[in-house]
Write a structure and sequence with these properties.
The complex is a heterotrimer. By secondary structure, chain A is an all-alpha fold. Chain A is built from 17 helices and no strands. In chain B, 76% of the residues lie in helices and 0% in strands. The chains are: A mainly alpha, B mainly alpha, C alpha+beta.
């Protein structure tokens, strides 16, 4: 830095420009790679907050009739844990990878609208800070991430916590929508010559699916949050049953957003898995058209299943039956992907890098989360286990065992591209095993807890047979998870400074991001290789057997 | 690492067919990204309005003063005509720009802004009148849903007016003399969308009172 | 990247195997704990049994798919791990016929499960043969349950008495926010939604006491909104009905008499929220206390109903159940003793 300040050859001192200050170079950036990294750093920051909240939850629940946290504090903590992990951890983690890698993988030099991209990032950061600022007021939201009316209305929630819950995520989700629009236009208009829509990498394809879901699922959330704010601050009556308003309407609007949100949180994760399983199996993805088409099916179907969150509301058998059928139908395109991934491995030569281990862990855990997902679509079973710990187990197998493990697989895979250095494999393997065991210790027993009668969102519970032991066991699992997170943080820090230098293409991979330097220059590519198939770098490396000769 | 990546194109590679864009790919290649962005943005916005409209319909017939008791359909109809007409005048402005007719562009752009402003003035008058009658956002479910739906629409019209005013100022400053049509056509997409939303809102809120 | 040294690989593999075995053992343990006390799989009526029967079928298919998927995954990991072969494996791109097969089979299974689902739903929602049901209205409050028997003229709280072998038509209403009535042994849960009247059929074929809880998050004390359903034999139920219909017992001891005085006095302030039949007030902000002495718990399950616990509750309910809507009345120990004697006498 300071050397540059003296100007070229040190002849004439140059005026100090914003570009010279490291911090400003990040804060003022519109480069998709820097924005992607800032998304990831922001998301890790909020993930750690959400993780501490999870730890507090488990400490309180380790024993029956515990008094570590008061009910008021516990309710704030579980609300903030859910809201934070969904809006401020998983989504921005994915947004970080999407921002960084979608332009690289399609051979573009940036997103279509770089300044809009930076704006979205800052909306996420400030939305997240605004939500967490509520802790400083002493009244964080205590209404659950789903914020069911009328518990959120004035007579029941007098503190400003609900308003923070509305405004923080509202600001962040405007950023989310803008990013999604940006991603859509980028993918549709900025692909390298030859990369037709049927030849984009699956990570790009699924990011497109995610972006399309975002732009249609988030506006109803925004609308319902606006209505709730009007109820609370201007005396409107949308969700106020005393004046004829409808608490059930809130649930419909919320879950119209809330269920696609589940797919929003996992589509790019599937995309990551679909990229790196082939690379570490040394074979192309099994059935690309099938995986791509099932993604399209999911995008459409996921907008028709929302009320399966409401089987206990009393909608009647007709509505319950419809939403059960719709939920069964979405299980098919979701489930078949698992076979595609497994059959990609079959016949391959598997390299068990840490990245691959996390990807395998993802498949193993996601199968579990997917199958319990089918179970809760079975209306009578759901009417037993909904709002119990069975559901907590189910969606943690999807979001932690699914999304988060995939994100970690992606982190080990792409860290070298982003930083030029490999993450440490030995630490990585410790990280993987502590994560996998800690995760299963924490969440597998929750299935049992739900079935034996423990409701969700309780700050404590009576000392019924088995409840205390199982909860204590889960809390021990959480401590192991805490260790795993610390190992990962140490690995990031250590490898960033001392890691093995990666080179451009450490995994001998096939998509365009590996055709440039690690990290890539600001303009990404000096020269974009020709794209004639879904694996342009395979074609370059294997001129004797290029994919385009197979019509792929 | 094999050195293949840096080895450049083999002879065979160079002769391999490059996929030719067709269908959607070809159409996308011709599309202006700004218009594409606006297109997806307004389709996203339509889900926002859909939520408000569904909510309005859900509470139709709830207790309290109703649309048919308090709304002046002919008067709002008159103001609505101003808004509908503004889509036509904006089209004329765009055509003027397209033909390089600066006078036509400026004239019709100003007329569009004036028509939009008339609509907003009408809405302000209507609100004032309703609030005088005791119909407010907190007076009952009709007020709640009516003011929220029409209010958010009005907000969108005002945002459109700001955008068009900026464009008009730039037009007079000569910014679009060189044939850069993107800003106006993109803002135009938004304006036509806001107009189309009003067609639905006007039908659901006002015209519905005539049949029930 | 690719670890070349064989010894290292062996050691890692052994570590992995040990970790897997330990993990599997640790995971099996909660399942055995759960099997000992498992209300959902201990159904007490035809409706609850329909859920369990359906669940076993679903579990069968789920286990089948789970075993196939995880088995194939493990097979792939063992069989196709890189063993140092040179070059790339054969590049294959898919198999259309295989993919159609693994799409079609789940569709068939799901259609089958859906048919069973609809059948079970109809069993659960069906009114009892002959339409003979006891009507009970449940009203959810933050954070307790009110039960009204409109045909019997009984009002009680937190503990629902039903006659064994007879269907109860339970109508669910809320006084404030959304709650949810859930007693796993008796079948489905149902939300208690303000402004919407839901109803379910509840039955226990045999006498017994069944635990349940509010299952929808309803604010600060959602945790202590427990449910107890007591299924009495028909004779016991009739006896209970007769006892409940009686007005509150007249205080017999001097302490209890003093307690009634405090209950009705403005100093005690009890009567502005609670009703005791026969004392001429009808407030129902808090639970009806006409027969509070006959109930087994206090504060919707937070304490068992003993004199000591009642005294503890009265001394400071906010300490026992923080955030509940009964304020700390700052009663003196003498007042607490008198009130306890009075309330415990209300059998």
């Amino acid at each position: 830095m300071t050397v540059e300040l003296t100007g070229q050859e040190g002849l004439r001192p140059r005026a100090r420009t914003p570009g010279d200050v490291l911090l400003l170079r990040w804060l003022a950036t519109v480069d998709h790679k820097q924005i992607g990294i800032m998304y990831l750093m922001g998301a890790v920051f909020f993930f750690l907050i959400g993780g501490v909240e999870a730890l507090l939850i488990r400490i309180q629940l380790a024993q029956p009739n515990a008094t570590v946290l008061s009910p008021e504090v516990y309710n704030q903590i579980f609300t903030m844990h859910g809201t934070t992990m969904i809006f401020l951890a998983v989504m921005p983690l994915l947004a970080g990878f999407v921002n960084y890698f979608v332009p690289l993988m399609i051979g573009a030099n940036d997103m279509a609208f770089p300044r809009l991209n930076a704006f979205s990032l800052w909306l996420f950061i400030f939305g997240g800070l605004l939500l967490n600022f509520s802790f400083l007021t002493g009244h964080a939201p205590d209404i659950g991430w789903f914020a069911y009316a009328p518990l959120t209305e004035q007579p029941y929630a007098l503190s400003n916590g609900v308003n923070y819950w509305i405004l923080g995520p509202l600001v962040a989700s405007v950023g989310t929508i803008l990013t999604a629009l940006n991603v859509i236009v980028t993918i549709l208009t900025m692909r390298a010559p030859g990369m037709t829509l049927t030849k984009v990498p699956l990570f790009v394809w699924m990011s497109l699916g995610q972006a399309i879901l975002i732009i249609y699922a988030f506006p109803p959330l925004t609308a319902s949050q606006a209505m709730l704010l009007l109820d609370r601050e201007l005396g409107a009556h949308f969700f106020d049953p005393a004046a004829g308003g409808s608490p059930v309407l809130w649930q419909h609007l919320f879950w119209f957003f809330g269920h696609p949100e589940v797919y929003i949180m996992i589509l790019p994760a599937w995309g990551m898995i679909s990229e790196l399983i082939p690379v570490f199996s040394r074979k192309p993805i099994f059935g690309y058209p099938f995986v791509a088409a099932s993604t399209v099916a999911i995008v459409f179907l996921s907008m028709t299943v929302w009320a399966h969150h409401m089987f206990a509301v009393g909608m009647g058998d007709l509505a319950d039956g419809f939403f059960a059928a719709a939920s069964f139908s979405i299980a098919v395109p979701t489930g078949v992907k698992v076979w595609n991934w497994i059959f990609t491995m079959i016949g391959g030569r598997l390299r068990f890098t840490t990245s691959m281990l996390f990807a395998i862990g993802f498949i193993a855990m996601f199968v579990m989360g997917g199958l319990t997902g089918v179970m809760v679509a079975v209306v009578p079973f759901d009417q037993q286990v909904t709002d119990t710990y069975f559901l907590v187990a189910h969606f943690h197998y999807v979001l932690f065992g699914g999304s988060l493990l995939a994100i970690l697989a992606g982190a080990y895979y792409w860290f070298p591209k982003m930083t030029g250095r490999l993450l440490d494999e030995r630490l990585g393997k410790w990280h993987f095993w502590t994560t996998l065991i800690g995760f299963n210790m924490t969440f597998f027993p929750m299935h049992i807890l739900g079935i034996i009668g423990m409701p969700r969102r309780v700050y404590t519970y009576p000392n019924l047979p088995g409840w205390g032991e199982i909860n204590l066991f889960e809390t021990l699992g959480t401590f192991l998870l805490t260790i795993s997170v610390l190992i990962f943080l140490w690995n990031l820090w250590h490898s960033l400074r001392n890691g093995e230098v990666a080179g451009d293409d450490p995994w001998d991979a096939w998509t365009l991001e590996w055709a440039t330097t690690s990290p890539p220059p600001p303009h990404n590519f000096d020269h974009v290789p020709p794209v004639r198939s879904r694996r342009p770098l395979w074609d370059l490396k294997h001129p004797e057997d290029p994919d385009w000769r197979h019509g792929e | 690492m094999s050195g293949a990546a840096s080895a450049g194109l083999s002879e065979q590679q160079a002769r391999a067919p490059m996929p030719v864009p067709s269908g959607a790919d070809a159409a996308l290649a011709r599309t202006d990204p700004h218009k594409l962005l606006m297109g997806f943005f307004i389709s996203s916005e339509s889900f926002f309005f859909l939520s408000l409209i569904v909510t309005y319909i859900t509470f139709h017939g709830a207790t309290g003063p109703q649309a048919k008791d308090v709304l002046d359909v002919p008067l709002t109809g008159l103001f609505s005509i101003a808004l509908f007409a503004s889509s036509g005048t904006l089209y004329l402005a765009e055509r003027g720009m397209h033909r390089g007719n600066r006078a036509q562009l400026r004239l019709w752009l100003l007329v569009t802004i004036a028509l939009g402003a008339i609509f907003i003035a009408g809405q302000a008058y209507e609100y004032h009148h309703l609030i005088d009658e005791g119909v407010t956002i907190s007076s009952g479910l009709f007020g709640t849903t009516f003011f929220t739906l029409t209010g958010f629409h009005g907000l969108h019209v005002i945002i459109g007016l700001v955008a068009l005013s900026i464009l008009a100022a730039l037009t007079f400053a000569g910014d679009f003399d060189e044939g850069n049509e993107m800003p106006l056509t993109t803002a135009g997409l938004y304006w036509h969308f806001v107009d189309a939303v009003w067609v639905v809102v006007f039908s659901v809120v006002y015209l519905w009172t005539l049949v029930s | 990247m690719r670890v070349g040294r064989k010894g290292l690989m062996h050691r890692r593999r052994r570590w992995g195997a040990i970790a897997l075995i330990v993990a599997a053992g640790l995971l099996a343990w909660p399942a055995t704990v759960g099997a000992e006390a498992n209300p959902m799989f201990d159904p007490q009526s035809g409706r609850a049994r329909a859920v369990v029967d359906l669940t076993w079928v679903v579990l069968f298919f789920v286990a089948l798919v789970f075993i196939i998927a995880e088995g194939l995954l493990i097979f792939a990991l063992v069989r196709y791990r890189h063993r140092g072969e040179a070059g790339e494996p054969r590049q294959t791109f898919g198999n259309r016929r295989l993919e159609i097969t693994w799409t079609a089979i789940p569709i068939v299974i799901l259609i089958f499960v859906f048919i069973l689902t609809v059948r079970a739903m109809r069993v659960i929602a069906a009114p009892p043969a002959g339409g003979d049901a006891l009507n009970v209205t449940l009203i959810g409050h933050q954070w307790w349950w009110e039960y009204r028997y409109p045909d019997l003229g009984i009002v009680t709280a937190n503990e629902l008495h039903i006659p064994a072998g007879k269907t109860v038509h339970l109508q669910l209403e809320s006084a404030d926010v959304i709650h949810d009535f859930w007693v796993p042994q008796l079948g489905r849960k149902m939300d208690v939604v303000p402004g919407k009247i839901n109803s379910i059929y509840v039955q226990s074929d045999n006498p017994g006491v069944f635990d349940g809880a509010c299952a929808e998050y309803c604010g600060t004390q959602h945790a202590w909104m427990r449910i107890k359903v007591i299924a009495d034999s028909p004779a016991d139920f009739d006896q209970w009905v007769q006892a409940q219909k009686a007005t509150g017992a007249q205080p017999a001891s001097p302490d209890a008499l003093a307690g009634r005085g405090i209950f009705l006095s403005s100093a005690g302030n009890c009567a502005s929220c609670h009703t005791i039949n026969g004392t001429a007030n009808l407030a129902n902000v808090g639970p009806d206390l006409t027969h509070v002495g006959s109930r087994t718990t206090i504060g919707a399950g937070v304490l068992t109903n003993t004199s000591d616990n009642m005294a503890r509750w009265l001394t400071n309910p906010q300490q026992v159940k923080p955030g509940n809507l009964m304020p700390d009345l700052r009663l003196t120990p003498d007042e607490v003793r008198a009130l306890t004697a009075y309330l415990e006498s209300l059998k």
